[in-house]
Design a protein that fits this description.
alpha/beta, binds nicotinamide-adenine-dinucleotide, 9 strands, 290 residues
């Protein structure tokens, strides 16, 4: 396929590189970064979109996505697919899909889980929203960039799945970290805590696969000085998207709301920015009950 790739940052560059290594003709554009080896350079977004079978975007937020989509949609060939893999708000995803479909294109929103390691290793999980035809058109690309793709329904549903998942993740990480901090103060050894919880009803991905306590459980960012991994800043971004969506559809999400407040405090008012989202553990350990 001829593929345009717009947004060659931490995630986009390795994803574009994997598509090129699999034999696709990939042309990339980014306002700040040069394309990785094997990917042709386009000086404008329009150039990266023209005559392409699929144009993939991997951008920071919904406003930037909407601007880029407005630029490129008129230049895409009829029947081509616009595949957005960024994490953005559900509303922006649906607006962009509507504009693309009106112009005779397929549109798929497919945010990812798996982080930079998953992007480099081609092991991402895609959660996709869009038509059956659109999903089928890009499914072979999901197979290259990832290990699993779930078609979640119409446009915007990929983003809906992503923010619901990450709201659970944020809430669970906070629960796991505050429980470790409580266990410390109760004199319970962290390894014993892990041995019990990881095989009891408190188990979770944050405990079992991404344990926030250094030296306990499998290798995780905690064992690397809380270098991300998945940065607290990105967790805050996704929690904010969950709360915007909850507000738009009048959903009651009290735990999601509290998790958003705590990550906001950690990232914007304390020293959480740039640390992994599991660095909530030392944060709780250093605090007293308010
Ligand atoms: P990043 O900031 O490294 O990359 C974004 C890229 O977009 C940058 O290189 C930037 O120069 C480029 N860009 C910005 N505006 C542009 C424009 N108008 N035209 C062309 N390029 C433009 O971010 P990232 O970590 O690669 O994340 C990309 C998306 O993936 C985000 O939506 C993020 O929430 C999501 N995501 C990230 C991770 C992660 O672990 N990093 C995990 C899952 C999802």
């Amino acid at each position: 396929m001829k593929i345009g790739f717009i947004g060659l940052g931490n995630m986009g560059a390795p994803m574009a590189s994997n598509l090129s290594k699999a034999g696709h003709e990939v042309t990339g554009h980014d306002i700040a970064n040069a394309p990785p080896e094997g990917v042709n350079a386009a000086t404008t977004a329009e150039q990266a979109a023209m005559d392409m079978d699929v144009v993939i975007t991997m951008l920071p937020n919904g406003d930037i996505l909407k601007n880029v989509a407005q630029q490129i949609i008129p230049h895409m060939k009829a029947g081509a697919t616009l595949l957005d893999c960024s994490t953005v708000d559900v509303e922006s995803a649906r607006i962009v899909a509507g504009k693309a479909e009106t112009a005779g294109l397929n549109a798929v929103d497919a945010p990812v889980s798996g982080g930079i390691g998953g992007a480099a290793g081609g092991t991402l999980t895609f959660m996709a929203g869009g038509s059956d035809v659109g999903f089928a058109a890009v499914a072979p690309l999901f197979d290259i960039m990832g290990q699993k793709a779930v078609h979640c329904g119409p446009s915007g549903n990929g983003q809906a799945a992503k923010i619901c998942n990450n709201m659970i993740l944020g809430v669970t990480m906070i629960g796991t970290c505050e429980a470790f901090a409580l266990a410390d103060k109760l004199g319970l050894d962290r390894q014993k805590m892990f041995d019990v919880v990881s095989t009891s009803s408190g188990y979770s991905w944050t405990m079992n696969a991404y344990c926030p306590a250094p030296g306990v459980g499998p290798q995780s960012p905690a064992d690397n000085g809380y270098q991300p991994g998945f940065a607290a800043d990105l967790m805050l971004k996704d929690l904010r998207l969950s709360q915007k969506a909850a507000q738009d559809v009048d959903a009651d999400t009290p735990m999601g709301k509290r998790a958003t407040e705590l990550y906001h405090q950690f990232v914007d008012e304390e020293d959480g920015s740039g640390q992994d989202f599991s660095a909530m553990l030392p944060r709780f350990v250093s605090r007293r009950r308010p």
